[in-house]
Amino acid sequence: MQSGFIDRSQETSGSYPLDKMVGSRRGFRQEIDFTKEGRVPPSAVEVEQEVLGCILLQGEAIERVIQVLGEDAEMVFYDFRHRIVFKAMLRLYMRREAIDLVTLSDELKRNEELEKVGGNYYIAEISNKVATAANVEYYAIIIKEKYLYRRLISVATQVSKLSYDQSVDVFDLVEQASQEVFRISQAGIKKKASDIKSLLKEATRMIESLRARKTSVTGVASGFSELDNLTAGFQPSDMIIIAARPSTGKTAFALSLARHAAVETKTPVLVFSLEMAEIQLATRMLCAEAFVDAQQVRTGRISSGDMTNIVSRMDRLSQAEIYIDDTPAISIIELGAKARRLKQEKNIGMIVVDYLQLISPVKEGGKSNREQEIAQISRSLKALAKELSLPVIALAQLNRSVEQRSGDRRPQLSDLRESGSIEQDADVVMFLSRPETYGIQNFPDGSSTKDVVEVVIGKQRNGPIGDIKLKFLKQYGRFETMTTVYTSANLEQATDDSKMLRAADDIERASLPPASGMMLNPDDAPF
Known about the structure:
Elements: E1 5-10, E2 18-23, H1 45-57, H2 61-69, H3 80-94, H4 101-110, H5 119-127, H6 136-163, H7 170-186, H8 196-212, H9 225-231, E3 239-244, H10 250-263, E4 269-273, H11 278-290, H12 294-299, H13 304-318, E5 322-325, H14 332-346, E6 350-354, H15 370-388, E7 392-397, H16 401-404, H17 421-425, E8 428-433, E9 452-460, E10 466-473, E11 478-481, H18 488-494, H19 498-510
Parallel strand pairs: 3-7, 3-8, 4-5, 4-6, 6-7
Antiparallel strand pairs: 1-2, 8-9, 9-10, 10-11
């Protein structure tokens, strides 16, 4: 039996099916007969006859019906007789045989189902319901809507009954109900294909708009000119994967992108932090913005100059629209719901997820392996990017094969942990690599690898691949272009008097007692 709530129907001779829901979590398996609830579930039996009549009139109409009804199309029909008839039509269609009164009657008779549906008399009655198949899609939409209403009633009724059982874990019940409602929403009326004429008009308007811009960055800018030259910014509807091994600077890089988008381009950003607490994330952002050593902040050895920088930059950062959600092990359903709400309320323009493999998948019926779960999460994030028309940046862990290779240690697409579907779904895949962590002291051109992170674009669906080098200022959790390495000039941008304060800080910090248990590696800091 599948986990969760299962919509079932039972065929009863001469009557409509009994809608049943079975709750299988924690041993709750009671069946509910909704005909005893005092009301008849929503249905449109005559419209179902018209749908079947259209198909009998014009066999090709079944293709339009399937497009509207989607998967398990026969379950959309409320009358069990109509389910049997439609399944017989599907069998004929799959065999590429004609669908008419003669072939349908023969197919039902072959499967000993003709008498169940009322014989040839009822089949003839259905065929006389319509004079044209022109409105078959409209009829199909009506019965699909009734079907979705029935599913909602089934879920709501079962949730109501289980809610009275005090032994049921309320959070399990909420999650289960959310998953069922999500499945219903996914089963909604499918989007129709667009004609090329209307698409070309829209494409022309977009091209004219891009041509009028004074910059080549058409998406959300990253803040790194070389990267933006390759990507033209993070584009709406794109899923961007940033993958690396642990302690490479993934989170710091993602926060840098979020900070630049919100502060410099005034783009509202939503950050889902599944690994770190929201206060830790905010602290890291503030340290990066204020050029303050995150390790010193953690140990409490903060000088007056550091505090001046923090206070000065906090005002600027606090005006940015950055929303952080640190729900641990958030489900892909909850993540999508929160993103949709923030899109509506705050018009967010970018989403950052740290990180993909920590998201909880929707529990499907039967057993699923980790690769299937990651594939589901990956598809859902891509679908969310398209639905909200914004870039979704998702961090991902790489497997250990990077460290086991000899020679070139730069990550490859095959290194993505647990699922090749991430590579398939992503529009852009970026890898972060720190050669110095593997004992490599120099790049092939002879330049030093110290504090340098390579950003390797391994895939870009609509652009070139390539790589750039960035300076990683670990103590601040900050990335800079190689031509804008941290100097006193950078510090002057933080506060007017920061250059003098920094000199005083060095003297003041030297007089502070060492903190016990101080971490030597800034990457190990919890913020």
